């Protein structure tokens, strides 16, 4: 089993990569973060936290985000693949 610090580091890298994938899709659609949040039914700064890698999504929010970005949840996740640990 990997050390706790290694898991935390890999999790942070995954969240950052996911955020970058979401940001790339949002900008490709020409949406602002505020517009994306509105599409998801939020008034806050939800997408900003996702894009910065500071917000950990539930599966429900992953689905809402993908729908708002006019894509499949799998497409958002596959852009975040990391090599297996050595």
TrEMBL record:
For this protein, the record's Pfam families field holds: HTH_3 (PF01381)
| InterPro entries with a match to the protein in the record | Cro/C1-type_HTH (IPR001387), Lambda_DNA-bd_dom_sf (IPR010982)
GO MF annotations in UniProt: DNA binding
Domain HTH cro/C1-type: start-end pairs: 23-76
User: Can you say what this protein is called?
Assistant: Helix-turn-helix domain-containing protein
């Amino acid at each position: 089993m990997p050390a706790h610090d290694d898991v935390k580091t890999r999790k942070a890298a995954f969240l950052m990569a996911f955020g970058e994938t979401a940001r790339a899709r949002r900008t490709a659609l020409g949406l602002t973060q505020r517009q994306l949040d509105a599409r998801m039914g939020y008034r806050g700064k939800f997408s900003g936290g996702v894009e910065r890698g500071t917000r950990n999504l539930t599966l429900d929010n992953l689905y809402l985000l993908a729908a708002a970005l006019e894509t499949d949840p799998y497409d958002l996740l596959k852009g975040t693949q990391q090599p297996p640990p050595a």
